[in-house]
Amino acid sequence: MPSRSNGLAAEMEAVRTLALVGPAAAGKSSLAEALLHKAGAIGACGSIERGSTVSDYDPLERRMLHSLNASVMHLKHAGTRIHFIDTPGGPDFLGQSLPALEAVETAAVVINAATGIEPMAVRMMEYAASRHLARMIIVNKIDSQGVSLQGLLADIQAAFGRECLPLNLPDGVNRQVVDCFFNRFGRSDFGPVEAAHRALVEQVVEVDAAFVDRYLEEGDVDPAELHAPLEQALREGHLIPVCFVSSRSGAGVAELLDVIVKLLPDPTEGNPPAFLLGEGAEAKPMEVRPDPSLHVLAHVFKVTVDPYVGKMGIFRVHQGTLTRDSQLYIGDGRKPFKVGHLFMLQGKEHVEVSHAVPGDIVAVAKVEDIHFDAVLHDAAEDSHVHLAPLAFPVPVHGLAVEPKRHGDEQRAWEILGKLAAEDPCLRIEHVAATNETVLYGLGELHLRIVLERLREVYRFEVLTRPPRIAYRETVTAPAEGHHRHKKQTGGAGQFGEVFLRIEPLPRGAGFQFADEVRGGAIPGQFIPAVEKGVREVLAGGAIAGYPVVDVRVVVYDGKHHSVDSKDIAFATAGRKAFMAAIREARPAVLEPIVQIGIDVPEHSVGDVTSDLSARRGVVTGTSDVGAGTVSVGGHVPMAELANYQSRLNAMTSGQGRYTIALSHYEAVPPGVQQTLMGQYRGHEEE
């Protein structure tokens, strides 16, 4: 009788995992429906227009007719369990699509035959290659009117390399497909399949010298013998298979299921995930083996937070066997949780299972400590194991938010935290300089969907506005200030007189305060009050309402009264003397200058650099980063980057990406300073 471990190993080898990635409108969700239906997992294909697909179950997705979240599904075909993840295609939702690559052996880039190669297809091919995944290309909608599939295949090979070879070809004027890997003879819409078959076999045998010799001697090799070199070719990116389908008519769908089962890698055949042991610079690569008999290691690649159901962690098992009632630790947490229920997901449906082996994608619910990118394990020595981090795009599109109802600030922070837990490309920050809570996302649409979810799911209303620019004020010349504060109200009065001088400090030096009073003109106990008055101006500004920085204040003289001098009098005198000095010291408003890095297609460099100059920016250099992409570096005022992603999309056909980091502060142009000062005076008058 076979042992249980042998049975689990066989079960693991009958698992396939792939992520459907690529541009919006390529038909990924419709293809998922067609695969589920053809395998008998659902009775009929759902419709995106009717909002009845398995993957797009979120009300916002149904309303927008687009995927906004990664959705996990599974099916069985020919004795094999296939897990696949349908991902959104918009660049604003890379926080959902990129983590799916952490859970699979194969990235299936779906291309719309009618629109050809789009920027998102290029990006996902690059991301998948950087994670050393097997890659395949699925050309969908082959029955679209007026398409040239031969021309598209040539475009694919020009964009991604000659290693992109068709496993099947359209036939019957794109109404069906014919295999050209196992099948040497026959015809297709492209002509005889023999040339395609020969190209595939030659590409595969190149990775194995023994098969090269056989091929040269015999003129062909039985494809059934090529499983090992095929998997090696997929692992090494030496072969990127191309399959043709139509999710609408069903052409090629059954054949695609066969390709997944027969040719794509199982968990033992893909490149091992890049696990690390240790933290920071001390972290070392760690071997994780897809062996069901070892201790458990699993990686959380997606978290959902439902206000009614609670938090759910969705993860890929990489090592060991997970069962109900298992005790699991989350990262370096010391308290384990018990797996009460283990689910495989079918869109929004939860299918309970008894166990999961390496390769399986499963979920646990109601575990509040679980979080994105966590490693789940059942052994104490694995507390410092983690997966090499993904290179997510940096969220730089900001929106200031505040609750509509006063007093809801804490609840707003909690709900926004839940939304950020679901999306690694959504960042929440309290900006102390402007006292604002700012949401940072990948674009305008990204943040709009977050706000709609806030309103519809959590019934929480917020007010929004562009984030304030964290301007500063400073002085550019030495000056002196004086003020006598005298107030008599019938009883005890107030008296304090202060003389001070100020001078500019180097940029970034901050604030310095010095007491050079001699002879007790201002008694020592009142000097802190003078400094307090000065600091009030530092915080609230003198000419435009922004904090004052990089200034030295020296109190050198004054007068006091033995009865009427009080702290409040010297605080007032210090504040007004400082204000008077600033007005004489050629005050300036400073603006934040950011260092910007922009990755753009080569043909867009001129437009981007011209636009940057028009935004008062300075280009510091360009460099070729490969694949037809150029990185443009420069400095630009933060105030000039409002809606920049939209402008960049227009200049680069959606292919441009940028990151920013604060560089330094510089004085604004005189016209801008006058505007800011005028706005401040108008506010003060109101």
UniProtKB/TrEMBL annotation:
Q: What stretches pass through the bilayer?
A: none
Q: Which residues form a coiled coil?
A: none
Xref: Pfam families:
EF-G_D2, EFG_C, EFG_III, EFG_IV, GTP_EFTU
Cross-referenced InterPro entries, in alphabetical order? EF-G-like_DII, EFG_II, EFG_III/V, EFG_IV, EFG_V, EFG_V-like, P-loop_NTPase, Ribosomal_Su5_D2-typ_SF
Tr-type G domain boundaries: 13-268
Instruction: Please provide the Gene Ontology terms (biological process) for this protein.
Output: ribosome disassembly
SMART domains xrefs: EFG_C, EFG_IV
| Gene3D superfamilies given in the database record | 3.30.230.10, 3.30.70.240, Elongation Factor G (Translational Gtpase), domain 3, P-loop containing nucleotide triphosphate hydrolases, Translation factors
User: In the record, what terms sit under GO molecular function?
Assistant: GTP binding; GTPase activity; guanosine tetraphosphate binding; translation elongation factor activity
UniProt keyword GTP-binding present? yes
Role, per record = Catalyzes the GTP-dependent ribosomal translocation step during translation elongation. During this step, the ribosome changes from the pre-translocational (PRE) to the post-translocational (POST) state as the newly formed A-site-bound peptidyl-tRNA and P-site-bound deacylated tRNA move to the P and E sites, respectively. Catalyzes the coordinated movement of the two tRNA molecules, the mRNA and conformational changes in the ribosome.
Protein's UniProt name = Elongation factor G
